[in-house]
Design brief:
About 40% of the residues lie in helices and about 15% in strands. It is an alpha+beta fold and about 300 residues long. α4 packs antiparallel against α6. It is globular, with a radius of gyration of 26 Å.
Length: about 300
């Protein structure tokens, strides 16, 4: 249950006072307003009136990362970022409102320019860049599609706009602090999908100017620490971290996992393709081994026959 039970104002009770953004049933609000209007010290809700406060789950800060190891990975992401290919989840009428905050419209060039500036020699199988998808659970923002100046637009009130700008600014501050501002080569805010979100790409250079993704994302402990660090950065906005290590099947949590999957529609297909390619490579290796063994056997057999 929400513990934000102070500073409720009678007759204007529409949201949790901490701006959780969870709207409550009108009937419950009217009842609460009537109670508050006659309560001692009207304007503050005493704990005894807590049963009238609706359930108010805290919104989540959501972070996903993906390693970009090849030029193909980077090129595919560039197409998604700048809508150079069809994006099923995107509303084309709102695409013009997307914002490029860092970098250019050529992600491959941005990554290469950073590597060149650092004097980094790329070794085989190195992670060239890391994509971060940063977003919030749906109830944090209440934008909707409307019309402005005669064209479709994403509409929201002043609170929603302040929350979005706060999330954007804090997200950029977080990646700058974590990776170094020079290593953040691209940042794009997508406003044409169901929930506003950021794609931020970094080149994982360490203090020696070497590509070292492992130093940032290597192992479960570092991944957990990263999620905690991101949530702490977002805490002033009223966002919280998911339960550490939890595999809760609560419907709300499932929606958040579904949102992350929705924001990266090609990820699952790409993973399946990668797995199939690996399987094909294993099969081909076994065929080659069998052919070599067969050829060797025939060669030995031919020698004995002579």
């Amino acid at each position: 249950m929400c513990t934000h039970y102070t500073i409720f104002r009678a007759k204007t009770l529409r949201f949790c006072p901490k701006n959780c953004s969870v709207r409550s049933p009108r009937r419950t609000l009217d009842r609460a307003a009537r109670v508050l209007a006659t309560a001692p010290g009207a304007g503050e809700l005493a704990p005894s009136f807590f049963p009238f406060v609706p359930h108010c789950p805290m919104p989540y800060a959501i972070l996903r990362t993906a390693k970009l190891k090849t030029a193909g990975n980077i090129g595919g992401l560039n197409d998604h970022l700048h809508r150079l290919r069809e994006t099923p989840n995107a509303d084309q009428e709102l695409t013009y409102q997307n914002q490029r905050l860092r970098g250019s419209d050529d992600l491959a060039a941005d990554v290469q320019n950073r590597l060149d500036a650092a004097g980094c020699t790329v070794r085989k199988n190195a992670v060239l860049a890391v994509e971060h998808v940063l977003t919030v659970s749906p109830e944090f923002l209440n934008f909707h599609k409307g019309e402005k100046d005669g064209r479709p637009a994403l509409m929201g009130n002043a609170t929603d706009r302040d929350r979005l700008s706060g999330f954007r600014d804090r997200a950029l501050e977080w990646v700058d602090e974590r990776y170094g501002e020079n290593n953040v080569v691209s940042a794009v805010l997508h406003l044409d999908e169901k929930t506003p979100h950021l794609h931020i790409v970094v080149v994982p250079l360490d203090e020696r100017s070497k590509l070292n993704c492992r130093s940032y994302l290597g192992g479960k402990d570092k991944m957990r620490a990263m999620q905690t660090s991101f949530a702490e950065k977002m805490e002033p906005l009223g966002l919280v971290r998911g339960v550490e290590g939890s595999k809760s099947e609560h419907q709300t949590i499932q929606r958040f996992y579904g949102l992350v999957k929705e924001l990266t529609p090609g990820l699952e297909k790409e993973a399946q393709t990668h797995q199939q390619e690996q399987a094909n490579q294993v099969v081909q290796q076994r065929i080659d081994q069998a052919n070599k063994a067969k050829s060797k056997g025939m060669s030995q057999g031919g020698g004995r026959g002579m």
